[in-house]
Amino acid sequence: MPAAKSPEFRRRALDLVAGGEPVAQVARNLGISESGLRRWMAADDVDTGKAEGVTSAEKRELIELRRKNRVLEMEIEILKRASAYFAREHILPK
Questions:
Q1: Does the keyword Kinase apply (predicted)?
Q2: What does CATH list as the number for 1-53?
Q3: What is the mean pLDDT of residues 17-45?
Q4: What percent of the chain shows pLDDT beyond 90?
Q5: What is the pTM of this model?
Q6: Which of 29, 47, 62, 73 has the most CB atoms within 10 Å of its CB?
Q7: Are 40 and 13 in contact (CB under 8 A)?
C-alpha cells in the first residue's frame, strides 16, 4: 500500500484541478492514481459542503468512538467473567 500523502500535498493537487488542469494530467504529474485524486476531490466536496455525506472530521470521530466502544465491550466481558469466577468460588460447598 502506498504511503499516505500529506494534507499539503493533497491541497496542492486539489488546487491544480480547481485551477482548470485535467485530473488525469495532474495525477500523472504528481505520481498518484487518477482514482485516488478523484476520491480526494469527492472528500473535499463533502468537507466544504458542496456535497452530502460524512465529513473527514466526522469519520475520524466515528473511528475513535468505535475503538473506545470495542475497548469498553472487552472490559465488560472481562468483568463478567471475573464476577462469575468469584461467585462460583463462594457458592460451592466446603
A1: no
A2: 1.10.10.10
A3: 95
A4: 81
A5: 0.70
A6: 47
A7: yes
What is the rounded distance in angstroms from the CA atom of residue 94 to the CA atom of residue 90? Answer: 9
Split at pLDDT 50, 70, 90, the class of 1 is: low
CA angle, residues 60, 46, 29, in degrees to nearest 5: 95
Q: State the amino acid at position 2 in one-letter form.
A: P
Q: Is the dihedral of CA 25, 29, 35, 39 positive or negative?
A: negative
Distances (CA, A) of 32 to 18, 22, 47, 89: 17, 14, 21, 62
Instruction: Flag whether pLDDT at 31 surpasses 60.
Output: yes
Of the listed ranges 56-60, 61-65, 90-94, the one predicted with least confidence: 90-94
* Residue 69: C-alpha distances to residues 23, 56, 78 (Å): 40, 20, 14
Return the closest-CA partner of residue 12 out of 49, 37, 34. Answer: 37
| Of 10, 61, 79, 78, the residue nearest 39 (C-alpha) | 10
The three cell numbers of residue 88 are 462460583
